[in-house]
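Entry 14. Structure prediction run on the chain below.
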Amino acid sequence: MFKKYLLITISIWFIVNNMFAQEVTYYVPKAIRTDQTIITFEKVKSTSSKYFINYKAENIGDGVLVIDRSKTSLVQGEGEMQTLSKQYVLKSGEKKTIYNDFRIKAPIKAYADQLDLTLYGVKYATGNGTPLTADKLVLASGATQTIGDFSIKVMEYNVYSDRVFAEIKCTYNGGNKRLGKIDLKKIAIAGGKADIVKKGDVVFSGKSYTFAINITPEDSKYTIDWTGVLQVLNLVDVKIETIKIKSSAYKENKKNKEKTEKTDKPKKDKDTSTNPKSEKEPCALSYNEFSELKNDLKLEVNSGGKPIPMANEYLLVKGCLNTAQVVELMGQFNLDSPRLEFAKMAYQFTSDKHKYHLAVGKLSYNKNKEALEEFLGQQ
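Output returned:
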């Protein structure tokens, strides 16, 4: 009997969710190539509140590819949208999927027939061929050094019976048109045998890179030789033409373009306002059901049980809940990681998925927020 009830409940949930869905197929160039990168599009999707545009970037040059996601522009008519802030760094040969979601607000409309995407924030960094030169740094507690636009500081220095430990912070302040490069494979330590786990990285202006050194003593004085370690990279714009995104419903008649736009616009406004999707209330747990799940969830958390599998079983029977209920239930967890896990699990049962960006704000750490954003971008 329970299995039959469960099957009926899941079937109803599936029908309701698909009834509210509006499928639009978008066409976009499969790949765009420059001398430095290949951009391959993986997904273009619209919901009633967001556009999701995902693409894979590959660095095919010898330098460093930098993508500032917040500079990406999506235009529809007179409206323009930007995605959330995030900078990506890809070294030669590396690939990365970039997840972009644009929150829809007037005059932008959902399920548009045509959109213009511009990747303004793509830059490429090339070296100037001259590593910075500097005097050797004598390791000591609080020691500092300035090398070009790099500020060096010994954050921690401890001498033990069998080793010497030092933690060093490198801050780069070279402006937004350049990057600092730290190559720790070339660092030389005098006074003992040194072990450095990190290999180095590129650093944005105003940012720092910290590394640690363990030295097996051979002397009582230890110095760092920076020859070839620090370098400045010059950032140049990668020019990518505006990308036209068109839906399967898009039609353009050049002779009657202005007339078509004038006659179609009121019709689109009318269709949007009468869309059943905007009129129907999404299904949700009743007050009693929600209170029961909330209390059970809290008890499982406090007792060290398995709250997420328990909630999953409960929702399989009850059918669906709304985003506001998901956000409140996330508050029953004491840690951010299980909040993220619960949000991912609950997504499949949520009736108003177009509002699910609100769950991102319930997370505390940026890495978890980005993880949920990427999860939503893949749905």
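Residues 2-20 form the longest helix (19 residues).
Filed with the rest of this week's runs.
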